[in-house]
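Hi F.,

I've been meaning to write this up properly since the lab meeting, where we talked about keeping a consistent format for the predictions we share between groups. The idea is simple: the sequence comes first, exactly as it goes in, then the structure tokens exactly as they come out, then a line or two of notes. No screenshots and no reformatting. I'm using this chain as the first example so we have something concrete to point to.
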Amino acid sequence: MRATTFNEGWSYRRFNAEMGYPDDADFTAVSIPHDAMLHEKRSQLASSGTNGSWFEGADYEYVKHFAVSEDAPAVQWLEFEGVYHNAEVWLNGEKLAFRPYGYTNFYVDISSHVKRRPGAGEPVNDSLNESVNEPLNELRVIARNVDQPNSRWYSGAGIYRPVQLWTAESAEHIVHNGVTVRTVSVDGQRARLWVQVDATAAGTATISIPQMGDSTQSDNAQDNNSVVTHSLRVEAQSVASAQGSIAQGSIEFDVEGVQLWSLDNPYVYEMHVDYVSDNGSRDQATTTFGVRTISWGDEGFLLNGKRVIIQGACIHHDNGVLGAATYAQAEERRVRLMKKAGYNAIRSAHNPISKALLDACDKLGVLVMDEYIDHWYIHKTQHDYVDYFDQWWQQDLRDMVEKDKNHPSVIMYSTGNEVAETAQKRGIELTAQMTEFLHSLDNTRAVTCGINIFFNFLNKIGFGQYSDEKAAKEAEEAARRKAAGEGEAVKHKASGSEFFNNLAGIMGADFMKIGASLPPCDWVTRDAFAAMDIAGYNYGINRYRHDLKKYEHRLILGSETFCNDAYKFRELAKKEPRLIGDFVWAGMDYLGETGVGGWEYADYAPREQKCGWLTAGSGRVDLIGNFLGEAYYTRVALESEGDQGPYIAVVPVNHTHDKHSPSAWKMSNAIASWSWNGCEGEDARVEVYARAASVALLVNGVEVGRKKMRGDCIARFDTTWQPGVVEAVAYDVSGKEIGRYALHSAGETTRLTASCEPESENSRVKFIHVDYTDNAGEVKPLERGQLSVSVEGKGVRLLGFGCASPYNEASFVSGESGTYYGRALAVVEVPEDASGRLIVRDNRGRTAQLDL
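Output, unedited:
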């Protein structure tokens, strides 16, 4: 089947589900992907509360009119990569599909439901006027999000991932995701591949792989060494799918001279399949794949036969100022940032990730643990997916595997996150069922599940973080808050995630780790861990040594961990191959779960939770892509690409001795800057990150301290801020210098600047940093201002604009924002072969321009 983008020509409006008819609001033209929730107001009365960044919930109606010619392909399917949530798809007044989960891609057969017009030509995607002679099709998509609260983080809403139209000339064709490629074995530069082709009817398939080595076991392989070709029979099977009965055919063959996909050499091949049915119908399909093997066991996790320590980061699905809208360029940017910060793997928290992010991980050499869901049959929020889970989990997992199966980056599936169900008999049985079901779909990848060991114990004794009753109480409080209205005080009582996050903030990061070391925590998790390939420990590092010794063949994955455990994990993993990996919470800041990781002062945020809180604040990289000191710490702690440091970061000098908001998910609020203009003579707290025997700190060439490194790769120094240069020097055990790193203070002149990230300069979607700097481009974190952004140029669109402040009352879609430590970010879409300009102004008359 052939894909055509179907993202233009849409319009949307609010849909009043309670009344059963649309609101009176006019339709607004939009392009897909589109996050409707990002355009809603935020209010202290919003039922989404801290979970959803205080955004109001609503239901939405999307409409697209399109024409189909008489001679257009007979088979037409729509693919929706993500609609949040409880999606309904209607065509010409007929309901064709319902899909409740907001994070899975799904297909809708519209072949027999489209109206066709006389004449030749391709579908007209942006035509809005119907005439008698040219019947148009009306496609309606309903996305519901008024049922708040329904998520523990900012979900976004609407058609937030791309839409594609898939076509085939005949009912006899290759099915969706109908080509499967697996690496059976690798021996040097020889690889054995297995390929399966699924079609709707019996026939013959010819596969070709350009730019591949010479085949050694095929009579019909071409002499041209750059192309491998093979033919196989596709025979009818007793297998059913959404597209009817299936015909299947498979083949194994050897290839010489292959390039293996690895973290250092993420080489991706493209496979073309030409299919001819026995009745003469033709179809084509293309897929990408990588040649690599993975395995797991007592020797650890092996990639191409060599041990790799998984050093990952958890990420949510939003893209910061873009909200939940999934642009391929934004997904690739996140992967680049995570790899630069030292992570070689990504955990999707807590839902299947987009196709674009998988493509980026394939391209850049980053491993993926794709996670299914945040809960099973126990509510975490009142209107979450629990009511649909039993009926849909198998279909959801099937769709996740179909999406992932050919991606070399995907090494593991996770069936859930902190599902306290695993402490119950029913949940243990379900753990095994889900693991077995995933093995039946794909036995080449490991299955895990992230379990908060301490919370499982609390659930078992009746004090669990989550329960149906607690979810109901949270919803009741939200209803009371809304009923009271503006100006009426309603006492807020934290429950569920918010309660335990607050408790962890007060008690510190050791709260869950010490709790997890209690003996009963083993008793309530061992059966569930036995039902998966790899045991996922959330915040259980204090158990690692004990459990590795007690359970001789258990493989342990830190499925969610604190940043300050990175060094401790790395050192233990070097000695214990069955400790296969770690995923820090979180790699990049995200919307929702407001304030859970924020260390904020009074000049940027109040202590109390209210609707100005926007992000979690718990990323090693902030919401707009800037590295925090913690990112440099984890890069050194994990020895990413052999990096030993040193690096320097500084606690905001204007707040050296001030109290900040509490959080267990942060170890430092230092940033890589020595530009604290106006703070002359103030105390400064400097952090140095290095793998060394000792480090020295110099200010303007004068050594102000020297410390030995023991048990970690961080050294903290107290000094006095003065303009100039702060420098760290690292030494080995013999006293020999092995590295140095410096930060320079900014000059007195202040400018407003706009600069495009180099990686996005030639991209359709550009990421533009708007900063206060000196004449040399040094960012000045103590400069603040209110900014407004506009764009010029045909078809040029401002997709989002904002700053990284966890407390932020502004909207990312208004074109206006404050700065956070001197910085903001604009994201602009520029059509191909077009040009434009971005103009920035601040409230003090400064301007900046950038040609696009």
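Notes:
The first strand starts at residue 2 and ends at 5.
The CA atoms of residues 590 and 615 lie 6 Å apart.

If this format works for you, I'll send the rest the same way.

G.
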